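We treat protein structure as text, and this decision shapes the records that our systems exchange. This encoding replaces a full spatial description with a residue-level series of whole-number codes. Below, we set out a record of this kind in full and without editing:
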Amino acid sequence: MTSTEQQPFLSVRDLKVHFSTEDGIVKAVDGLSFDIAKGKTLGIVGESGSGKSVTNLTILGLHDRDRTAIEGEIVLDGKDLLTSTERELERLRGNKMAMIFQDALASLSPYHTIGKQIGETYRKHTGASKKEARERSIEMLRRVGIPQPEMRVDDYPHQFSGGMRQRAMIAMALVCDPELLIADEPTTALDVTVQAQIMDLLKDLQQEFGTAIVFITHDLGVIADIADDVLVMYGGRCVERGTKEEVLRDPQHPYTLGLMSSMPSLDGPVDVPLQPIPGSPPSLLNPPTGCRFHPRCAFVDKVAGGLCSSERPLLEVADGRGSACHLPKEQRKELFADLAVIRHN
């Protein structure tokens, strides 16, 4: 998946995650593959319900195994996570891999100080004393830009602003220097100024530690800022992947094009109306046959024989670049150009 010759630190192969419910089987992830190398950021983008968060919770082993059917392979630094025991996963979580959740206030305990919550994670994985853990907590709060960390370490989450809570979450995630960091829309609830600060912080910390980052978002603008490679998900499947430059400058799947067309452009005419994707994301309980995007696709009538609604398109990947669409590549290029979408190449 990566655009370098580095060996993947995390490798996901043909991942399927299905949940049993009273109404039937929810196919939340349905055959997903990707790689990420150390020091690189993979951006996973898609609408709500596309399977982004489920994928990353599966990597961390946070699903109820009694109600979840998981197939495929997830290998982290040579270790198969899907065959690991819960005890082995507990040793890895917070230590070798960590996650920043979207809602810091809901993820932090209101009954314990920020310093205690960061310090307990550190003590669990290192056996450090309470004094050492407190010193480490202060160091991490300083590293993520919390002013007066010696004083704020004893504050509770409600005494922090939204941006500061998110920084505290990042400090907790990084306290044991994990080699894989999963960020699940960590800037969604923040204003644009704080969002930019958090993004810069993640990039600085990645450069310092060489961390591999999986960044989940629905915002292509965020992807443009932070990602090296991009994976576009729809209906539990990957519909397009490539480097950031390839995907954003030359989208090859109608869904990716739709996401871009629904975004405002900073360098285009201000009076051009946005073009939202019609319809709603598919039900993963009863997904459409064939290409899952076909009920919302503007080009479905361009493919002969009803192929879009009857046959799943293959994700053909060459040198990390590919898309899952029945339209021939040259025809796609011609049709996409006709929409006069603002390009940056």
Q: What stands out?
A: Residues 340-345 have pLDDT under 50 and may be disordered. The longest helix spans residues 192-209.
